[in-house]
Amino acid sequence: MLQQSFSSAFPYQIQNFFATSKSIRFFFRLFIITMLVSICLNKTAIGQSFSTDKKLTAELQSYLKKFHGQAGIYVYSFQHHKQVAIEADTLFPTASMVKVPILIALMDKIKAGELQYHQTFTYYDSLAYPGVDMLASFKNGEKIELSKLILLMLSLSDNTASLWLQAIAGGGTRINNLMDSLGFTQTRVNSRTPGREAIRLQYGWGQTTPYEMAMILKRIASGTLLGQPYDDKMLRLLSRNYWDEEALSQIPANVFVASKNGAVDASRSEVLYVNGKKGSYIFCICTNHNTDQSWETNNEAWELSRNISKLLWEYYH
Fold it and tell me: Among residues 95, 66, 109, 301, which one has the least CA distance to residue 213?
Protein backbone atom coordinates (compact mmCIF):
# COMPACT_ATOMS: atom_id res chain seq x y z
CA MET A 1 0.00 0.00 0.00
CA LEU A 2 2.85 2.32 0.88
CA GLN A 3 4.60 1.45 -2.42
CA GLN A 4 1.39 2.05 -4.35
CA SER A 5 0.88 5.41 -2.66
CA PHE A 6 4.42 6.42 -3.53
CA SER A 7 4.03 5.24 -7.13
CA SER A 8 0.76 7.05 -7.61
CA ALA A 9 2.19 10.23 -6.08
CA PHE A 10 5.36 10.14 -8.19
CA PRO A 11 3.89 11.63 -11.39
CA TYR A 12 2.49 14.51 -9.33
CA GLN A 13 5.92 15.08 -7.75
CA ILE A 14 7.57 15.17 -11.18
CA GLN A 15 4.99 17.65 -12.45
CA ASN A 16 5.33 19.70 -9.28
CA PHE A 17 9.12 19.70 -9.68
CA PHE A 18 8.92 21.03 -13.24
CA ALA A 19 6.26 23.54 -12.24
CA THR A 20 8.51 24.71 -9.39
CA SER A 21 11.49 24.85 -11.76
CA LYS A 22 9.50 26.97 -14.17
CA SER A 23 8.52 29.26 -11.27
CA ILE A 24 12.14 29.53 -10.22
CA ARG A 25 13.20 30.36 -13.79
CA PHE A 26 10.38 32.89 -14.08
CA PHE A 27 11.30 34.69 -10.88
CA PHE A 28 15.00 34.54 -11.74
CA ARG A 29 14.30 36.16 -15.11
CA LEU A 30 12.07 38.72 -13.40
CA PHE A 31 14.91 39.51 -10.95
CA ILE A 32 17.39 39.96 -13.81
CA ILE A 33 14.99 42.23 -15.70
CA THR A 34 14.36 44.27 -12.55
CA MET A 35 18.09 44.71 -11.99
CA LEU A 36 18.65 45.76 -15.59
CA VAL A 37 15.81 48.28 -15.43
CA SER A 38 17.26 49.65 -12.17
CA ILE A 39 20.69 50.01 -13.77
CA CYS A 40 19.18 51.72 -16.80
CA LEU A 41 17.19 54.13 -14.65
CA ASN A 42 20.29 54.94 -12.64
CA LYS A 43 22.22 55.52 -15.84
CA THR A 44 19.47 57.78 -17.13
CA ALA A 45 19.64 59.82 -13.93
CA ILE A 46 23.40 60.07 -13.75
CA GLY A 47 25.28 59.08 -16.87
CA GLN A 48 23.06 58.57 -19.88
CA SER A 49 24.77 59.04 -23.20
CA PHE A 50 22.93 61.57 -25.34
CA SER A 51 23.51 62.22 -29.01
CA THR A 52 26.12 64.87 -29.76
CA ASP A 53 25.19 68.22 -31.25
CA LYS A 54 27.97 68.32 -33.83
CA LYS A 55 27.25 71.82 -35.08
CA LEU A 56 27.33 73.33 -31.60
CA THR A 57 30.40 71.27 -30.71
CA ALA A 58 32.30 72.77 -33.63
CA GLU A 59 31.29 76.30 -32.67
CA LEU A 60 32.33 75.84 -29.05
CA GLN A 61 35.62 74.18 -29.99
CA SER A 62 36.56 77.27 -31.98
CA TYR A 63 36.31 79.32 -28.78
CA LEU A 64 38.15 76.85 -26.55
CA LYS A 65 41.05 76.44 -28.99
CA LYS A 66 41.86 80.14 -28.65
CA PHE A 67 41.93 80.05 -24.86
CA HIS A 68 45.29 80.39 -23.14
CA GLY A 69 44.92 77.66 -20.57
CA GLN A 70 43.00 74.43 -20.05
CA ALA A 71 39.25 74.50 -20.64
CA GLY A 72 36.40 72.00 -20.62
CA ILE A 73 32.68 72.31 -21.19
CA TYR A 74 29.52 70.24 -21.01
CA VAL A 75 26.19 71.36 -22.46
CA TYR A 76 22.82 69.60 -22.37
CA SER A 77 19.57 70.65 -24.02
CA PHE A 78 16.37 69.44 -22.34
CA GLN A 79 14.39 70.13 -25.48
CA HIS A 80 16.62 68.39 -28.01
CA HIS A 81 18.22 65.82 -25.65
CA LYS A 82 21.57 66.58 -27.25
CA GLN A 83 24.89 67.29 -25.62
CA VAL A 84 28.27 68.86 -26.17
CA ALA A 85 31.18 67.34 -24.27
CA ILE A 86 34.65 68.84 -24.68
CA GLU A 87 37.15 67.75 -22.00
CA ALA A 88 33.97 67.11 -20.01
CA ASP A 89 35.43 64.24 -17.97
CA THR A 90 38.62 66.10 -17.10
CA LEU A 91 39.13 67.09 -13.46
CA PHE A 92 39.13 70.80 -12.70
CA PRO A 93 39.23 72.85 -9.50
CA THR A 94 35.75 73.74 -8.31
CA ALA A 95 36.72 76.91 -6.45
CA SER A 96 33.39 78.13 -5.07
CA MET A 97 31.33 75.66 -7.12
CA VAL A 98 32.17 73.28 -4.25
CA LYS A 99 29.38 75.04 -2.39
CA VAL A 100 26.84 73.09 -4.45
CA PRO A 101 27.87 69.73 -2.88
CA ILE A 102 27.87 71.45 0.53
CA LEU A 103 24.31 72.63 -0.14
CA ILE A 104 23.24 69.11 -1.12
CA ALA A 105 24.71 67.66 2.08
CA LEU A 106 22.91 70.28 4.17
CA MET A 107 19.60 69.60 2.43
CA ASP A 108 20.13 65.88 2.92
CA LYS A 109 20.43 66.48 6.67
CA ILE A 110 17.30 68.62 6.60
CA LYS A 111 15.51 65.81 4.76
CA ALA A 112 16.64 63.34 7.44
CA GLY A 113 15.42 65.65 10.22
CA GLU A 114 18.95 66.21 11.55
CA LEU A 115 18.82 69.94 10.77
CA GLN A 116 16.04 72.51 10.53
CA TYR A 117 16.07 75.07 7.73
CA HIS A 118 15.41 77.94 10.17
CA GLN A 119 17.58 76.50 12.95
CA THR A 120 19.57 79.12 14.88
CA PHE A 121 23.35 78.97 15.22
CA THR A 122 25.80 81.15 17.17
CA TYR A 123 28.66 82.86 15.36
CA TYR A 124 32.07 83.11 17.04
CA ASP A 125 35.13 85.06 15.92
CA SER A 126 37.10 81.80 15.66
CA LEU A 127 35.00 80.91 12.61
CA ALA A 128 36.19 83.92 10.58
CA TYR A 129 38.04 83.20 7.35
CA PRO A 130 40.51 85.86 6.10
CA GLY A 131 38.98 88.11 3.46
CA VAL A 132 36.04 90.45 3.07
CA ASP A 133 33.22 88.07 3.98
CA MET A 134 30.04 89.60 5.37
CA LEU A 135 29.70 86.94 8.06
CA ALA A 136 33.17 87.73 9.39
CA SER A 137 31.91 91.22 10.27
CA PHE A 138 29.34 89.78 12.69
CA LYS A 139 29.79 90.33 16.41
CA ASN A 140 31.10 87.47 18.51
CA GLY A 141 28.13 85.55 19.92
CA GLU A 142 25.63 86.87 17.38
CA LYS A 143 22.80 84.55 16.29
CA ILE A 144 22.04 83.61 12.69
CA GLU A 145 19.64 81.17 11.03
CA LEU A 146 20.85 78.26 8.91
CA SER A 147 18.74 79.61 6.03
CA LYS A 148 20.68 82.88 6.09
CA LEU A 149 24.02 81.09 6.26
CA ILE A 150 23.02 79.20 3.10
CA LEU A 151 22.01 82.50 1.49
CA LEU A 152 25.43 83.96 2.28
CA MET A 153 27.19 80.86 0.94
CA LEU A 154 25.35 80.70 -2.37
CA SER A 155 24.45 84.30 -3.17
CA LEU A 156 27.55 86.13 -1.93
CA SER A 157 29.85 83.09 -1.96
CA ASP A 158 30.82 83.98 1.60
CA ASN A 159 33.72 81.68 2.51
CA THR A 160 33.34 82.07 6.27
CA ALA A 161 29.72 80.92 6.01
CA SER A 162 30.67 78.16 3.58
CA LEU A 163 33.40 76.60 5.70
CA TRP A 164 31.12 76.73 8.72
CA LEU A 165 28.35 75.08 6.70
CA GLN A 166 30.77 72.41 5.49
CA ALA A 167 31.29 71.45 9.13
CA ILE A 168 27.56 71.67 9.91
CA ALA A 169 26.87 69.37 6.93
CA GLY A 170 29.09 66.73 8.52
CA GLY A 171 32.47 67.61 7.07
CA GLY A 172 34.22 66.86 3.79
CA THR A 173 34.30 63.09 4.25
CA ARG A 174 30.53 62.86 4.75
CA ILE A 175 29.89 65.18 1.80
CA ASN A 176 32.15 63.07 -0.43
CA ASN A 177 30.45 59.86 0.67
CA LEU A 178 27.06 61.38 -0.10
CA MET A 179 28.18 62.50 -3.57
CA ASP A 180 29.52 59.00 -4.19
CA SER A 181 26.19 57.46 -3.14
CA LEU A 182 24.40 59.76 -5.59
CA GLY A 183 26.62 58.51 -8.41
CA PHE A 184 29.08 61.41 -8.59
CA THR A 185 32.50 59.84 -8.16
CA GLN A 186 34.65 62.75 -9.36
CA THR A 187 33.13 65.62 -7.37
CA ARG A 188 34.96 65.96 -4.07
CA VAL A 189 35.61 68.34 -1.19
CA ASN A 190 39.33 68.53 -0.44
CA SER A 191 39.82 71.32 2.10
CA ARG A 192 39.57 70.35 5.77
CA THR A 193 39.01 66.74 4.71
CA PRO A 194 41.28 64.07 6.24
CA GLY A 195 43.33 62.15 3.68
CA ARG A 196 42.89 64.72 0.91
CA GLU A 197 45.63 67.16 1.88
CA ALA A 198 47.87 66.27 -1.07
CA ILE A 199 45.15 66.53 -3.70
CA ARG A 200 44.03 69.84 -2.16
CA LEU A 201 47.41 71.26 -3.17
CA GLN A 202 46.57 70.39 -6.77
CA TYR A 203 42.87 71.29 -6.99
CA GLY A 204 42.18 73.49 -3.99
CA TRP A 205 38.93 73.42 -1.98
CA GLY A 206 37.24 70.95 -4.30
CA GLN A 207 37.36 69.17 -7.64
CA THR A 208 34.85 68.11 -10.27
CA THR A 209 34.37 67.60 -13.99
CA PRO A 210 32.22 69.78 -16.28
CA TYR A 211 30.01 66.75 -16.92
CA GLU A 212 29.42 65.88 -13.27
CA MET A 213 28.73 69.43 -12.14
CA ALA A 214 26.27 69.88 -15.00
CA MET A 215 24.56 66.58 -14.16
CA ILE A 216 24.25 67.59 -10.51
CA LEU A 217 22.36 70.70 -11.56
CA LYS A 218 20.35 68.71 -14.11
CA ARG A 219 19.13 66.31 -11.44
CA ILE A 220 18.30 69.18 -9.08
CA ALA A 221 16.32 70.89 -11.85
CA SER A 222 14.59 67.60 -12.72
CA GLY A 223 13.74 66.85 -9.09
CA THR A 224 15.63 63.55 -9.15
CA LEU A 225 18.56 64.24 -6.81
CA LEU A 226 17.10 64.30 -3.29
CA GLY A 227 13.47 64.47 -4.39
CA GLN A 228 10.84 67.09 -3.66
CA PRO A 229 10.50 69.55 -2.03
CA TYR A 230 14.26 69.54 -1.40
CA ASP A 231 15.37 69.83 -5.03
CA ASP A 232 12.99 72.72 -5.67
CA LYS A 233 14.34 74.51 -2.62
CA MET A 234 17.91 74.10 -3.79
CA LEU A 235 16.98 75.35 -7.25
CA ARG A 236 15.43 78.49 -5.77
CA LEU A 237 18.45 79.08 -3.55
CA LEU A 238 20.78 78.77 -6.56
CA SER A 239 18.80 81.40 -8.46
CA ARG A 240 19.92 84.29 -6.23
CA ASN A 241 23.47 84.77 -7.43
CA TYR A 242 25.04 88.15 -6.66
CA TRP A 243 27.93 87.41 -9.03
CA ASP A 244 26.09 88.06 -12.29
CA GLU A 245 28.65 89.82 -14.48
CA GLU A 246 30.02 86.80 -16.34
CA ALA A 247 27.91 84.06 -17.97
CA LEU A 248 24.75 85.30 -16.26
CA SER A 249 25.13 88.73 -17.85
CA GLN A 250 24.39 87.28 -21.31
CA ILE A 251 20.97 85.91 -20.38
CA PRO A 252 17.88 88.17 -20.29
CA ALA A 253 16.96 89.28 -16.79
CA ASN A 254 13.41 87.92 -17.05
CA VAL A 255 14.65 84.33 -17.56
CA PHE A 256 14.97 81.96 -14.61
CA VAL A 257 18.57 80.88 -14.06
CA ALA A 258 20.08 78.79 -11.27
CA SER A 259 23.86 79.04 -11.11
CA LYS A 260 27.07 78.90 -9.14
CA ASN A 261 30.46 80.19 -10.15
CA GLY A 262 33.93 79.83 -8.74
CA ALA A 263 37.15 81.75 -9.16
CA VAL A 264 40.73 81.58 -7.97
CA ASP A 265 43.77 83.06 -9.69
CA ALA A 266 44.37 80.32 -12.26
CA SER A 267 40.87 78.83 -12.49
CA ARG A 268 37.46 80.34 -13.32
CA SER A 269 34.36 78.16 -13.65
CA GLU A 270 30.56 78.41 -13.85
CA VAL A 271 27.56 76.10 -14.00
CA LEU A 272 24.13 77.33 -15.10
CA TYR A 273 20.63 75.92 -15.54
CA VAL A 274 18.74 78.21 -17.92
CA ASN A 275 14.96 77.85 -18.16
CA GLY A 276 14.68 79.52 -21.54
CA LYS A 277 11.54 80.55 -23.38
CA LYS A 278 12.15 78.02 -26.16
CA GLY A 279 13.67 75.29 -24.04
CA SER A 280 15.87 74.72 -21.03
CA TYR A 281 19.56 73.91 -21.07
CA ILE A 282 22.46 73.39 -18.70
CA PHE A 283 26.10 74.13 -19.22
CA CYS A 284 29.23 74.01 -17.13
CA ILE A 285 32.48 75.58 -18.22
CA CYS A 286 35.68 74.99 -16.25
CA THR A 287 39.14 76.42 -16.74
CA ASN A 288 42.54 75.79 -15.16
CA HIS A 289 46.19 76.79 -15.58
CA ASN A 290 44.98 80.11 -16.97
CA THR A 291 47.64 82.42 -18.37
CA ASP A 292 45.52 85.47 -17.54
CA GLN A 293 45.21 85.49 -13.75
CA SER A 294 44.01 89.06 -13.45
CA TRP A 295 40.87 90.12 -11.60
CA GLU A 296 39.78 92.73 -14.10
CA THR A 297 36.41 92.49 -15.85
CA ASN A 298 38.09 91.59 -19.14
CA ASN A 299 39.89 88.55 -17.72
CA GLU A 300 40.23 86.03 -20.56
CA ALA A 301 38.38 83.21 -18.77
CA TRP A 302 35.49 85.49 -17.85
CA GLU A 303 35.31 86.74 -21.42
CA LEU A 304 35.20 83.11 -22.55
CA SER A 305 32.28 82.45 -20.19
CA ARG A 306 30.39 85.48 -21.51
CA ASN A 307 30.99 84.55 -25.14
CA ILE A 308 29.92 80.95 -24.64
CA SER A 309 26.85 81.96 -22.63
CA LYS A 310 25.85 84.42 -25.37
CA LEU A 311 26.40 81.80 -28.06
CA LEU A 312 24.27 79.21 -26.23
CA TRP A 313 21.41 81.62 -25.56
CA GLU A 314 21.27 82.65 -29.22
CA TYR A 315 21.69 79.06 -30.41
CA TYR A 316 18.72 77.80 -28.43
CA HIS A 317 16.56 80.88 -29.08
Answer: 95
* Pick from 232, 218, 228: nearest CA to 183: 218
- Measured CA to CA, the distance from residue 241 to residue 286 in angstroms comes to 18
Helices 99-111, 210-222: inter-axial angle, 10-degree rounding: 40
Give me the amino acid identity at 237: L
Nearest CA to 268 out of 251, 250, 284, 252 is that of 284
pLDDT tens over the chain, length 317 residues = 333 333 334 344 445 544 455 555 555 565 554 444 444 444 434 446 799 999 999 999 999 999 999 999 999 999 999 999 999 999 999 999 999 999 999 999 999 999 999 999 999 999 999 888 999 999 999 999 999 999 999 999 999 999 999 999 999 999 999 999 999 999 999 999 999 999 999 999 999 999 999 999 999 999 999 999 999 999 999 999 999 999 999 999 999 999 999 999 999 999 999 999 899 999 999 999 999 999 999 999 999 999 999 999 999 99
H-run or E-run covering 144: strand 143-145
Q: Which domains does the chain possess?
A: 51-90+209-317 (3.40.710.10), 98-185 (no CATH)
Are 282 and 271 spatial neighbours (Cβ–Cβ below 8 Å)? yes
Predicted TM-score (pTM) of this structure:
0.85
